[in-house]
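re: the backbone from monday

yeah here it is again, tokenized this time
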């Protein structure tokens, strides 16, 4: 796998995790609708928040991996991306 392919896979995973975080937040808040879930506003906010958090999340995960803590790396990365999704959902809904 090339570095570009790995970066694309990481970005795809990050976006998927962030989307799930946003969806769960919206459902919990009682404001989830199909229209909101497919809106350009939410998509744009997700892109913005994932981009803002991706480098830091990757660095944190790499630190955990360097310490031999693979599971912690995975969970740290996932938590950071879920928080990016929640931030995007809050931005779009004003909650």
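seq for it, each position gets an aa:
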């Amino acid at each position: 796998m090339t570095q570009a392919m790995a970066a694309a896979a990481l970005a795809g995973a990050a976006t998927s995790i962030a989307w799930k975080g946003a969806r769960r937040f919206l459902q919990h808040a009682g404001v989830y609708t199909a229209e909101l879930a497919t809106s350009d506003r939410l998509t744009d906010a997700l892109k913005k928040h994932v981009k803002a958090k991706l480098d830091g999340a990757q660095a944190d995960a790499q630190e955990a991996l360097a310490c031999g803590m693979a599971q912690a790396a995975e969970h740290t990365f996932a938590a950071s991306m879920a928080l990016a999704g929640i931030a995007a959902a809050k931005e779009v809904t004003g909650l």
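Residues 3-29 form the longest helix (27 residues). Helices lie at 3-29, 34-37, 40-66, 70-93.
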